[in-house]
Specification:
Order of helices and strands: HEHEEHEHEHEHHHEEEEEHHEEEEEEEE
Structural class: alpha+beta
Shape: elongated
Largest sheet: 6 strands, mixed
Protein name: Xaa-Pro peptidase family protein
InterPro entries: Creatin/AminoP/Spt16_N, Creatinase/aminopeptidase-like, Creatinase_N, Pept_M24, Peptidase_M24B
Domain Creatinase N-terminal: 4-128
Strand content: 15-25%
Number of strands: 19
Organism: Enterococcus raffinosus
Helix content: 25-40%
Distance between the termini: 56 Å
Pfam family, one: Peptidase_M24
């Protein structure tokens, strides 16, 4: 179980417990999806502290968890005090607010305990997925594929990027997504050279590139996909750059293997692009973990030393951005390291060079 593995980590760090303040980590450990609350994990207990707005929800969503309701007019700290006396407690340094940390630090000290910084203690567990988690991510990826199939024929000359982004969000929900994984990116023409371009009021014109980057959510699990294609005819140089990037992405996917470091996969993609004189235009990491959040630990960064394991899920998304040439390209897929040790693509929408006919 998730909590059993966490308790081993807590004991190895010589801690009596862990204060879980991150919303996603709380959900992962006990199932509670409320936006507010604190989970205290100790050797033998799980206590979830919530106010009255969430008591019923917490009771419905959790099992083997003691629900501690914060009384009206009371405070989290005072409700927590009886359970922290003399304890060395870990806290999630990467996500806790300074205000909450400050009040916790004072209270724990007053109860003759102390706080210890922890980093990625739960995220390290989350990066290796259980079968039901992989199944949910696969469904989210399928919804993303189906959304692209639905919306590409809808693109018209004169449609704004924002209009197209709204259609993507609308149809992905109709197909079963619980919401957008992040602000949907639609960029066209010169704006494709902006890696994270916000969809704008720019009108899509014929004979230019369109880049679409979006994600869907199914049972709380995320997908993330990017495709770049020609809307009408584009210069041969752009098509050639696309083929180079696609080769880098495919070779990076093929290089995935248990025991390798994630940094090696990033470096593989950069090596392929370097051979084609394009590596200087690749300005971000190769990818990121994927699960209950879109951008999870760990990153596929050049120096990342995390070792690949079976059942890890992450994105592989090389991109090149050439503002002076007036275009950018990114190709992104979600993968799972399967039982054979290969990176199995979960997003399967066509990624070979594609030209869409201009209409209207």
């Amino acid at each position: 179980m998730n909590v059993d593995e966490l308790r081993k980590k807590i004991a190895a760090a010589n801690l009596a417990g862990l204060l879980v303040t991150d919303k996603i980590n709380r959900r992962y450990l006990c199932g509670f999806t409320g936006s507010n609350g604190l989970l205290l994990v100790t050797e033998n207990t799980l206590r979830l502290f919530v106010d009255g707005r969430y008591t019923k929800q917490a009771q419905q969503q959790t099992s083997n968890v003691e629900i501690c309701e914060i009384p009206v007019g009371g405070s989290l700290i005072e409700t927590l005090r009886p359970f922290i006396k003399g304890l060395a407690l870990g806290f999630e340094a990467g996500t806790i607010s300074y205000q909450l940390f400050s009040t916790l630090q004072i209270a724990v000290a007053e109860e003759e305990g102390h706080l210890v910084e922890t980093k990625n203690m739960i995220e390290g567990l989350r990066m290796v997925k259980r079968p039901e988690e992989i199944a949910a991510i696969k469904q989210a990826a399928l919804i993303a594929d189906q959304t692209l199939e639905k919306i590409l024929p809808m693109i018209r000359v004169g449609m704004t990027e924002l209009e197209l982004a709204n259609e993507i969000d609308y149809h992905s929900k109709k197909l079963g997504s619980e919401g957008a994984a992040f602000e949907t990116i639609v960029a066209s023409g010169e704006r494709t050279a902006l890696p994270h371009a916000h969809a704008s009021q720019k009108k899509i014109a014929e004979n230019e590139l369109i880049m679409i980057d979006f994600g869907t959510i199914y049972q709380g699990y995320y997908s993330d996909i990017t495709r770049t294609f020609g809307f009408g005819e584009v210069p041969k140089s752009i098509k050639e750059a696309y083929q180079s990037l696609l080769s880098a992405q495919k070779q990076a996917i093929a290089a995935v293997s248990p025991g390798k470091k994630l940094g090696e996969i990033d470096q593989m993609a950069r090596m392929v692009l370097e051979q084609r004189g394009l590596d200087q235009f690749f300005s971000h990491n190769l990818g990121h973990g994927l699960g209950l959040y879109c951008h999870e630990y760990p990153a596929l960064a050049p120096q990342e030393t995390v070792t690949i394991e079976k059942n890890m899920t992450f994105t592989i998304e090389p991109g090149i951005y050439l503002p002076e040439a007036g275009f950018g390209i990114r190709i992104e897929d979600d993968v799972v390291v399967n039982d054979s040790g290969d990176a199995e693509s979960l997003t399967r929408f066509n990624k070979e060079w594609m030209t869409i006919g201009c209409n209207g």
